[in-house]
Each structure stands twice: as structure tokens, then as C-alpha cells.
Automatic annotation (TrEMBL):
Residue span(s) of domain Acyl-CoA dehydrogenase/oxidase C-terminal: 238-384
Presence of the UniProt keyword Transit peptide in the record: yes
Acyl-CoA dehydrogenase/oxidase N-terminal domain location: 19-131
Assigned protein family: Belongs to the acyl-CoA dehydrogenase family.
First-tier enzyme category under EC: oxidoreductase
Gene3D superfamilies on file: Acyl-CoA dehydrogenase/oxidase, N-terminal domain (1.10.540.10), Butyryl-CoA Dehydrogenase, subunit A, domain 2 (2.40.110.10), Butyryl-CoA Dehydrogenase, subunit A, domain 3 (1.20.140.10)
Protein known as: glutaryl-CoA dehydrogenase (ETF)
Pathways involved: Amino-acid metabolism; lysine degradation; Amino-acid metabolism; tryptophan metabolism
Requisite cofactors: FAD
Coiled-coil ranges from the UniProt annotation: none
Enzyme Commission identifier(s): 1.3.8.6
Reaction equations catalysed: glutaryl-CoA + oxidized [electron-transfer flavoprotein] + 2 H(+) = (2E)-butenoyl-CoA + reduced [electron-transfer flavoprotein] + CO2
Source organism of the structure: Ahniella affigens
Length: 390
């Protein structure tokens, strides 16, 4: 039989392991990224602007809260489909995927998992439609890797709560209509739905960023913010709540950087075929072929890792340590590939006319947020030894 040409960005034909529905989701989001994200994202990154005009289109495609039930206006997709959404969005830019991740996994998920039925009915349909945007307030200015050392607190005041404190590095902060805020109470850490017009609540955008420039990042400040009891998430207490949200979001993050890495490999490969040095394209040199082959090897490993993680999640058997291993491996993979691709592009690689430098800068944030690389390494180490080294 004649050999069938392999897809250079899917050397193990992982796509053949997807269902028809999963492939359809991937194809639809890939078209959206190609047609709507890629033509504008370089300029958005340069100007430090999030393309909020894309939100209604993302909502129309069912990308917001995609894994939640249809009874709340959501698409009811499986976990692998959500992962593929993240992969294709991040092939465009980490900031676009971050928006969808926060809206879906860090805001809509806790309302669904920890909220009352009244809260679900009130918020989820409008969030799925992109009419209400959320942000997730956990990280604080003094440090993000130790959420148990939370300074933001909420105290009962009659039938309401008064929240004081601050949160930092909050994606979507100045876009958000509501903030899912985690605060220390006398009964332990609890979650609250803080609406943007509540007196004493302020979001302040972070500027002068060199990463996630096409994304909104903010600080949140609470000065005796009065929150009604009806806005408290009633069905969780303690760190289980925010950590459960982070596990959902980290799952998507294991997929997203695969898209960034594929974008970088594609651009480096095409550039290497046209860049002529010493009378031949650099793609004809062993050094460049070795680099490109190593990129493809590492992307293939990440694809298989995330697909198996998705199958475990859909089966209900996924463990947080498995998410940590995949987040650690896949983000490190993508960051290394972005840097290597930038090197292959030479001087041209330092401009945002090409994607590797943009992805490399973005991935510096992705490897830090929702658990630094070191934190995830220590989670795996604890699993292996039974000893907590934090």
C-alpha cells in the first residue's frame, strides 16, 4: 500500500481517536481561530487590548461553559471537547483561551457545583450567552501559591456579609459583571458572588504587562463591600471550593499550550523552508531538522497525555495529581518550543509579525498561574513519596 502522508502537527493521528462530535467541535473552533482571532490578535497584543467583540461569537458557538448542562443554556459537551476548544483558542492566543477558561471553569463551574439552584438559574444562562462576564478572585497581592494564608475576610453583619481585602492578577477583572470571591470567614473559606456595582468594590486594571497583553488583568479591592446572603455559595466550605475550580481550569490549560506549540512549530517550519543561508534553505540543515523533530516529538507526547486525561475526566476517575503532571509537562513543552521557534526565526523572531515571541511571552504567565511549575512538581513528588514538601 502507498504510504499515507502524516499530518506534521499530529504525527500519531490522535485525531482518529476522537469521536465525530469531538472532531466537529475542533474544526469549528479552528475555523473561528483562523478567521476571527489570527487576523487581529497580533495588533491586539501590541496595543494591549482584549478583543471583546469576539465574546458574542464565542457564546453563539457554545464555548462558554461548554461542559455544563443544556438546562442552563450551556452546550453540554464532554471534557475532551472542552480541551479541544482550549487547544484551538490558544493556537490563536493564550489570552483568548484564558478568557474562556475563566468564564467557564472558574466562574460558571463554581456557580453550578457549589451554588443554589436559584443562583444557577439567575446567572448561568446569561453567562453562557456572554451577557454576563465573570472573574475569579482567589490570588492575593502577598502571594498566590499559598491560598490557605488568605487575608481577604468576610464577616456576618445581620443578614448580609461585609467583605474586606484585595485580590491580584485577576483575569477578566475589569470586564467582569460579577466576581467569584473567596474569603476567610469564621466558618472557614467561603465563596461569594460580588456584583460589580456593589458599593466599596473596585477593579483596577494592571498595565505595563509584557505577557497576556491581549487579556484583561486586574486587581480587585473590597472596602466593607456588603454582600447579601443570597450571593453566598452555599454548598462548599474550605479550600475544597477554590481548589476544585482550579482543577477544572487546569485541565483546560493542559490542552491550551498544545495549540500554542503547534502554531510555533508551523511558523518555524514554514520559515525554515524559505530562509536561505549559504545557498540552501535552513530547513535543509541537520541542526534545524533536529529542532523541528524534537518539537514534533514533544507535541505528540502532550497530545496523548491530554487526550488520556480527558478520557479519565469523562469517566469520572481523573485525579488532581494527573492534572498537575499534564499541566507541568505541557506548559513546559510549549514554552520551550516557543523559545526554540523564536531562535529559528532569527532576528525576525523578535517581532510580533510572527507568533513565537508572543506565545513565549504569554506562556511565561501560563507556566506561573493556577499553580507554578514548582508547585505541580511538588504535587507529583508528594504522590510518589507520601511526604508533603510544601
Amino acid at each position: 500500500m502507498p504510504a499515507v502522508a502524516l499530518n506534521p502537527y499530529d504525527l500519531f493521528d490522535v485525531r482518529s481517536l476522537l469521536s465525530d462530535e469531538e472532531r466537529a467541535v475542533q474544526d469549528a473552533v479552528a475555523r473561528f481561530t483562523d478567521e476571527r482571532v489570527l487576523p487581529i490578535i497580533g495588533e491586539c497584543f501590541d496595543k494591549g487590548v482584549f478583543p471583546r467583540e469576539l465574546i458574542p461569537e464565542m457564546a453563539e458557538m457554545g464555548l462558554l461553559g461548554s461542559s455544563l448542562p443544556t438546562e442552563y443554556g450551556c452546550a453540554g459537551m464532554n471534557a475532551v471537547s472542552y480541551g479541544l476548544i482550549c487547544q484551538e483558542l490558544e493556537r490563536g492566543d493564550s489570552g483568548i483561551r484564558s478568557f474562556a477558561s475563566v468564564q467557564s471553569s472558574l466562574c460558571m463551574y463554581p456557580i453550578y457545583a457549589y451554588g443554589s439552584e436559584e443562583q444557577r438559574r439567575r446567572w448561568l444562562p446569561d453567562m453562557a450567552a456572554g451577557k454576563v462576564i465573570g472573574c475569579f478572585g482567589l490570588t492575593e497581592p502577598h502571594g498566590g501559591s499559598d491560598p490557605s494564608n488568605m487575608k481577604t475576610h468576610a464577616k456576618r453583619d445581620g443578614s448580609d456579609w461585609l467583605i474586606n481585602g484585595a485580590k491580584m492578577w485577576i483575569t477578566n477583572g475589569n470586564l467582569a459583571d460579577i466576581a467569584i470571591v473567596w474569603a476567610m470567614t469564621e466558618e472557614g473559606i467561603q465563596g461569594f458572588l460580588v456584583e460589580k456595582d456593589f458599593p466599596g468594590f473596585k477593579a483596577q486594571e494592571v498595565h505595563r504587562k509584557m505577557s497576556l497583553r491581549a487579556s484583561v488583568t486586574s486587581g480587585l479591592f473590597f472596602d466593607n463591600v456588603r454582600v447579601p446572603e443570597a450571593n453566598r455559595l452555599p454548598n462548599v466550605r474550605g479550600l475544597k471550593g477554590p481548589l476544585g475550580c482550579l482543577t477544572q481550569a487546569r485541565f483546560g490549560i493542559t490542552w491550551g499550550p498544545i495549540g500554542a506549540a503547534i502554531a510555533c512549530l508551523h511558523e518555524a517550519t514554514e520559515y525554515s523552508k524559505t530562509r536561505v543561508l549559504f545557498n540552501r534553505p535552513i530547513a535543509a540543515t541537520q541542526s534545524v531538522q533536529l529542532k523541528l523533530a524534537d518539537m514534533a516529538r514533544r507535541i505528540t507526547q502532550a497530545q496523548l497525555l491530554s487526550l488520556q486525561l480527558g478520557r479519565l475526566k469523562d469517566a469520572g476517575t481523573m485525579q488532581p495529581t494527573q492534572v498537575s503532571l499534564a499541566k507541568w509537562n505541557n506548559v513546559r513543552m510549549a514554552l520551550d518550543i516557543a523559545r526554540e521557534a523564536r531562535d529559528i526565526l532569527g532576528g525576525a523572531g523578535i517581532t510580533t509579525e510572527y507568533c513565537p515571541i508572543r506565545h513565549a511571552l504569554n506562556l511565561e504567565s501560563v507556566i506561573t498561574y493556577e499553580g507554578t511549575e514548582t508547585v505541580h512538581q511538588l504535587v507529583v513528588g508528594r504522590e510518589l513519596t507520601g511526604i508533603n514538601a510544601f
